[in-house]
Amino acid sequence: MMGNNEIHEFHIKNILRKLDENDLDAMLVANFNNIYYLSGYLSTSFAFLIIKENPIIFVSGMDMENASNTSSIDIVKYESFDKMIEYLKEEEIKTLAIESDLTANVYEKFKDFNLKISDVISTERMIKTDDEIEKIFKAADIAHKSLLELDVRTKQEKGVEEWECAYELGYLMRKNGASIESFDTIFASGPVSSLPHSTPRHHVLDTPVLVDYGCKFEGYCSDTTRTFIYNEKQEEISDIVLEAHDKAIKAVEAGVKASQVDKVARDIISEYGYGDNFIHSTGHSFGLDIHENPSLSMRDDTVLENNMFVTVEPGIYLEGEFGIRIEDMVLVDKKGKVVGNLPQIL
Q1: With contact defined as beta carbons under 8 Å apart, do 123 and 96 qualify?
Q2: Parallel, antiparallel, or unpaired: how do β-strands 315-318 and 309-312 relate?
Q3: What is the CA radius of gyration of the chain?
Q4: Which of 10, 197, 290, 293 is the most exposed place for a label (fewest CB within 10 A)?
Q5: Is residue 188 classed as helix, strand or coil in its secondary structure?
Q6: Predicted model pTM
Q7: Cβ neighbours of 148 (radius 10 Å)
Q8: Distance between CA atoms of 310 and 102, rounded to whole angstroms?
Q9: Beta carbons of 26 and 56 less than 8 angstroms apart
Q10: How far is the C-alpha of 335 from the C-alpha of 249, rounded, in Å?
Q11: Order of strands, edge to edge, in the sheet holding 215-217?
């Protein structure tokens, strides 16, 4: 297995090659996770990485100690935008790649250069290294263990509120080794389970109970959804969702387009007459961020490759009644490998 410095150098070489192919002299990187991905340094305030033959990071004074202890790339203390621009001109950089999420005020500062939005880093991040795969599996193990420890059915019987369960699950994940949740935990019960992104309420658990949650381990996310069902109608809908989930996972393999996996899940749900109630894409990739490229949507024709991760999370949402979603993380290989061994029905 490569060491961190070697991994960073490997990614930077790939990115430099792609920049060169597109006649781009260098790239300005401000996204915290992109800088972390390429250097091992996670900013707490702001930082600017210039990717070129000898990359450099301009670091906030507050972060100098942290950066010098963690960054595999040379660092220099940030003084002003003018100094950075002067440096780029000295390096004879004319055409500068930027990230799509660069803020408008930073864009304005660099408009003297020929700026081109580039997705080279997000493309590089799609394929995970062995080290990244290990961390994602560990994040999943922590999250799955924590949900079982929470014991949702007992909480429901005792009349515990949604927000209490969400916070306790966050505590358990941290207790079991996570640093933080991957995103705000969704703990939705009763009619609000038909809202895919419901916020936990001061409301005792109704039925069904939909839990969409995850945690980070050493920066890497997990993402799982389970819906606890309690009656025949919920079971009927759950069976359809599970069929779509299982068949979509079987469709995940290297060489298949992301849109084809979405179509498998969507077609099954549509055949049962609930096509209009499946109101989001089938899944998305994840890693340092909870939503990365590609997405398993009808519009994304990205060809899946070995060592990509995707979620498979079909759902049926009956407005005013309830919603059912079942989500697992899948590692792309010759065939899809489900991450962890949490039963789909709990």
Answers
A1: no
A2: unpaired
A3: 22
A4: 197
A5: strand
A6: 0.95
A7: 12
A8: 25
A9: no
A10: 9
A11: 180-181, 215-217, 220-221
